[in-house]
Amino acid sequence: MEIFHISAECYPVAKVGGLADVVGALPKYQNNAGHQVRVVMPCYDTKFRKENDFECVHWGHVKLGNFNFPFNILKEKTDSLGFELYLVEIQELFDRKDIYGYQDDIERFLSFQIATLDWITGRSEIPDVINCHDHHTGLIPFMMLYCHKYEKLRNIPSMITIHNGLYQGQFGFDKLYYLPEFDLAHVKVLEWDNCINSLAVAVKCAWAVTTVSPSYLNEINYYANGLESLFNLVRYKSRGILNGIDIEVWDPAKDAMLEKNYSVKTFEKGKQENKEKLCNLFNLDPTKPLFSFIGRLLEEKGGDLLPHAAALALSENYQQINILILGSGNKVIENQLNSLLQDYKGNYNTFIGYNEELAHLIYAGSDFLLMPSRVEPCGLNQMYSLRYGTIPIVRRTGGLRDTVIDFGDDGNGICHDQATVGDICYSIQRAVDLYDDKKHLNKIRKIGMNTDHSWERVCQEYIELYNLIINKK
Ligand code: GLC
């Protein structure tokens, strides 16, 4: 089967969050399973772009209303990622350091989508299925169905995978003329709450809708930033497929970013060595339990609760625990977290920023990983931490609910129900008690390390769904 994945991110080419990890891994496993898989993404000014060789396989002009942007489709020459990678180069719009956050994001991602379809329509082979990811690619299913110049793609099934339904890519009808020509009888399809809503459009037009965990599929029926009723309406073509993790990249036995490699047989010693390295780097006490947070410091991830929870847990367990935070996001949260540094020197530290290598060391060297998310469509960090023998402490929501079971129920982690400082601190207290019972602690770590979250099984679920929609043609 010939599959196209279209996405704004893909690890290691360009990453902001978990979307990149998924688009960097799922295609590789689909390719290994014998399919012909291609990933298409914008060409940003990243390290990967500079350090790899590309050949231009197509060029053209994107027409966006009155604007005209030249574009090139660049193919990475060696398929080093395990699938064919194509970058859509539109220099004026994407030759920048950041992936998102520009005033012209709507123009940027719309041009990307149009260039991609211009190219795919012109190819001699027509793909079997097009899998779009999140709102940045949400107008593709619409354009395939209704834009005159993509008529050739009308019968190709499209699927939208929702990694985060809170972000929807809305813009005003004043920009309607950006879209390639289509029969205006269909203009209503673009509308949600008086705007063009890219995610809503994708959900309406795609032949199948997936979310990245089964629980998240249930949750968006009552919490989806205004799209709840739409998600209810399309339930018949929706499916929740839990993400996997790339067990080649995330393998404590081989991970080159660790101080010491270890397996399920040697994890006690291995984790301790990584912990010592980490504690050295951040002036923490390696004899005390280490609680870490890795991720974006946003309300959605419970980031606003962290400063208060950390302060309370550190004062209640004075000098008995360590807390380490790696992340960036909301400046207020960043400042609040940094303001604790003075009071809890030796037991608390932060690294404000994004650092992939450090993240690996933290998964390996921590005892517990905090994930107090308000919303978590899947969450990958809890799966990485389980694989590295680090016990996740999670709020039961979305994919966290599907992957972490409380140790009180013979599970692999620690769970609480409310996104509150009180619930987080209660869980930290349970973790402190568990840390003193080494036999029990190690038993739970082993359960986590032995859990299979690999993509092999999951990738089959995607293929089954593609087959289902292909047969509907
Ligand atoms: C988004 C979600 C996260 C999910 C990831 C990959 O970043 O917030 O929960 O794991 O996408 O699907």
TrEMBL record:
GO molecular function: alpha-1,4-glucan glucosyltransferase (ADP-glucose donor) activity; alpha-1,4-glucan glucosyltransferase (UDP-glucose donor) activity
Function of the protein: Synthesizes alpha-1,4-glucan chains using ADP-glucose.
Residues reported to bind ADP-alpha-D-glucose: 15
KW Transferase (keyword) present: yes
Record-linked NCBIfam families: glgA
Gene3D superfamilies listed in its UniProt record: Glycogen Phosphorylase B
Source species: Flavobacterium caseinilyticum
Family (UniProt): Belongs to the glycosyltransferase 1 family. Bacterial/plant glycogen synthase subfamily.
Single biological process term from Gene Ontology: glycogen biosynthetic process
Ranges annotated as spanning the membrane: none
Pathway recorded for this protein: Glycan biosynthesis; glycogen biosynthesis
Protein name: Glycogen synthase
InterPro entries: Glyco_trans_1 (IPR001296), GS/SS (IPR011835), Starch_synth_cat_dom (IPR013534)
Keywords in alphabetical order: Glycogen biosynthesis, Glycosyltransferase, Transferase
Domain of life, per lineage: Bacteria
Glycosyl transferase family domain mapped to chain residues: 283-441
Gene name of this polypeptide: glgA
